[in-house]
Amino acid sequence: MLAALAGQPNSGKTTVFNALTGTHQHTGNYPGVTVEKKEGIFKVDGRTVRVVDLPGVYSLTAYTLEERIARQFLLEERPDVVVNVVDASNLERQLYLTVQLIEMKVPLVLAFNMSDLARQRGLEFDLEQMRVLLGAPIVPLVATQKEGIEQLKEAIVRYADSPRPKAVEIRYGPELDEAVGKIEQTLDESHPLIQQYGRRWVALKLLEGDPEIRHQIRSPQTTDVLHQVQQHLHKLFKESPEVLIAERRYGFISGALRETVRQTVPKRHDISDRLDAVLIHRYLGLPVFAALMYAVFYLTFQVGGWPQGWLEDGFTFLSHLAERFWPEGFAEELKSLLIDGVIAGVGGVVVFLPNILLLFLGIAFLEDSGYMARAAFLMDRLMHRIGLHGKSFIPMLIGFGCSVPAIMATRILENRHNRLATMLVIPLMSCGARITIYGLLIPAFFPAPLRGPMMWLIYLIGIVLAIVCVRLLRRTILKGETVPFVMELPPYRLPTLRGLLIHMWERGRMYLRKAGTVILALSIVMWAATRYPRPPASAELMSVPQQQSAALQYSLAGRVGRWIEPVLRPIGFDWKIGTALIGATMAKEVFVSQLSIVYSLGGEEDLDHLRSHLQADYSRLQGFCIMLFCLVSTPCIATVAVTRRESGAWRWALLQFGGLTVLAYGLTLAVYQGGLLLSRLFGH
Questions:
Q1: Most CB atoms within 10 A, among 291, 298, 357, 590?
Q2: How far apart are CA 349 and CA 308, in angstroms?
Q3: 339, 595 in Cβ contact below 8 A?
């Protein structure tokens, strides 16, 4: 059996080697170099273990001769066990090498040397939790006094004879993980290096700029993709991928230590320490998080209102322009399709683009600055209480942009029950598409000082409902233990303007693409459904604005709305809202475009006109209930489809679809009827 000792200089590795092997050791040189090679043996339970003391290195990037020797030994000799000796009194710096060994997926045993010094400094470790987080058994040592040496010998033999546990997967953030994934796709699976250590490790080393790996992997396709992703990352962060990867490794370490060490260990960044003292404080952290999110929503409405008004004026001008220059008596149906269908439908969605961009700008700033990782760490305490952990908060945050990538992001969760529970409640996070609904209804029913708080309240309701639903799921159909994990806490950094703009525009472009494809198609369908079939004497009816409502009710959309109206009436909705809700199952933005078409009376299509109609037809209580129902109810078809794909079964997708709809109806019914009761008791 072969065991290798790896560790940083001054970790006490040589002392551990001497304690393990005693006098049964000899020295020589590694082939072709003058670097000393120490070997020895020890016996335990009748087994003979050959131990090689690798050169002391700070990393395995293979820049120095010692690093190349250590890594080459691990790659070529493939020891049965790698014992990583670390100074337990200085874990944050020492575990950097550990992270790289975890990345290599070597059979790892951790020897926490100098445990006496760590105790003197007041450090207390949750070794069982740390073992799970790092994916390796841990043996405390005081090598100078031979404390723990026999336990280490037994751990080496026991680990070598046991089945290999599942390796810990270290994540480096969405941008770096995406870059690694693109490089992985270009790698030849038959390459010996890839067969031995996997495509992900090789791709990571290529991105990191490792000279030896680049020398061995010379595919032109890989080289081209590598260059592209490096350029992209540098534009986003103004840093090299090597620096970014190092920061993420330290983030992984910092998160692990926060989970398992009682007393704060020495930190690398004093400013980060002072900020963390407030931002992830046990009592101040959540109010700070709530205040920051409120600021983002306030920015979305207050600042976004100006360009939104400009876009509204632009689409109104476009509509009037088409009305003015359309030839008299020529293809009136086509004219109606253009003005009432395309301009009103698509325009009703596009005018909210400034709000979407500002929301994504705010979230991108919090993500790139390193704060969102702290928010996830902060939420970890709450998540543990409901049967999840902070890692589930990451896809939930993505859900504020779009539910589809958020559900795909649940792949980072190793535990299937955790993943399913997170997946099922992600639609309760208000996605960007719902901003169009809130952006229409909040200004229609609430004065300016209340618009920011109302937006904040809607988002908060979704989060609270998600917590309640997860707790219910984890106590019933998805019972099981919560798996611990390492929360990455990267250092704070000032986001680059270019990076923020790229993040903002990439998400905004997706929104515009949907407006130009899905929304356009559904707007045309909705226009036809609101126009046909025509009632008798339709020409006379359509020429009188007051009678257009009767014609609309006679149409296909009106008939469907009338058919479901009895079910919707107890929650305060009529056939018009019901018609828009049906379209919203295809895409949430369609709710606004369909209302724009339904209320496209007299040739006026601007949002103020639409809001005035809503104010006339519905009360403030009804307006709030519409938002509440749209928040909770059935997710869009794309979300249902990706849930089925990621969960592997239709029953979970149907549970999400039906369960959220039933929850939305019940909750809205309680709020609406309760509101009516209070109104009767206390007056308006």
A1: 590
A2: 11
A3: no
Following DSSP, what letter does each residue of 296-349 receive, concatenated?
HHHHHHHTTHHHHHHHHHHHHHHHHHHHHHSPTTS-HHHHHIIIIIIIHHHHHH
**At a CB cut-off of 8 Å and minimum separation 6, what does 72 contact?**
none
**Positive or negative CA dihedral for 639, 642, 643, 644?**
positive
Single out the residue of 15, 259, 306 nearest to residue 128, CA to CA.
Answer: 259
Find the helix or strand (DSSP H, E) in which 6 lies. strand 2-7
Q: How far apart are CA 253 and CA 96, in angstroms?
A: 7
pLDDT-derived band at 341, boundaries 50, 70, 90: low
| DSSP β-ladder status, 36-44 and 138-140 | unpaired
Query: How far apart (Å, rounded) are the C-alpha atoms in residues 538 and 75?
Result: 81
What's the CA gap between 425 and 660, in Å, rounded?
A: 9
Start-to-end CA span in the chain (Å): 83
- Euclidean distance between CA atoms 109 and 52, whole angstroms: 14
Q: Is residue 479 within 8 Å of residue 395, measured between CB atoms?
A: no
**H helix runs in 427-537, sequence order:** 432-445, 448-475, 497-516, 518-531
Q: What is the pLDDT of residues 624-662, one digit of tens each?
A: 999 999 999 988 777 887 788 778 888 998 999 999 999
Separation of alpha carbons 356 and 349, rounded Å: 11
Task: Check if the beta carbon of residue 148 is closer than 8 Å to that of residue 175.
Answer: no
Give the per-residue SS3 of 318-332: HHHHHHHHCCCCCCH
Q: In this structure, are residues 419 and 483 in contact, taking their beta carbons and an 8 Å threshold? A: no
299, two tokens: 């920015």
* CA distances, 641 to each of 241, 509, 636, 637, 647 (Å): 35, 22, 9, 6, 10
Q: Which two tokens stand for residue 410?
A: 């649940």
Q: How far apart are alpha carbons 86 and 66 in whole angstroms?
A: 18
The Cα 219–Cα 556 span in angstroms is 59
Rounded-to-integer distance, Cα 6 and Cα 72, Å: 13
- The per-residue pLDDT for range 312-340, each reduced to its tens digit, is 788 878 878 887 888 876 777 787 778 76
DSSP 3-state of 174: helix
Which DSSP helix (H) or strand (E) runs through 158? helix 149-161
- Residue 125: beta bridge partners? 261
Taking only the tens place, the pLDDT of each residue in 271-318 is: 677 888 888 887 888 888 888 877 887 777 678 778 877 887 888 788
Nearest to 485, CA basis, from 380, 374, 370? 380
* pLDDT for position 206: 92
Which ranges constitute the DSSP H helices of 32-122? 65-77, 91-104, 115-120
φ/ψ of 603, rounded to 5, equals 80, 10
Place of tokens 């600055």: 369
Quick count: other Cβ atoms within 10 Å of Cβ 14?
17
Supply the angle between the helices 270-279 and 285-302 in degrees, to the nearest 10: 90
Both structure tokens of 331: 């293809």
Angle of helix 448-475 relative to helix 416-425, nearest 10 degrees, comes to 150
> Could you give the 3-state DSSP secondary structure of residue 588?
coil
Q: Quick check: 624 and 614 in contact, CB under 8 A?
A: no
Of the candidates 466, 279, 280, the residue with the CA atom closest to the CA atom of residue 388: 466
Check residue 30 and give its pLDDT: 74
- Residue 389: closest CA among 470, 279, 459, 465: 470
The single-letter code of the amino acid at 374 is: R
Q: Which residues contact 446 (CB under 8 A, 6 or more apart)?
A: 454, 620, 623
CA distance 509 to 635: 21
Element (H, E) at 107: none
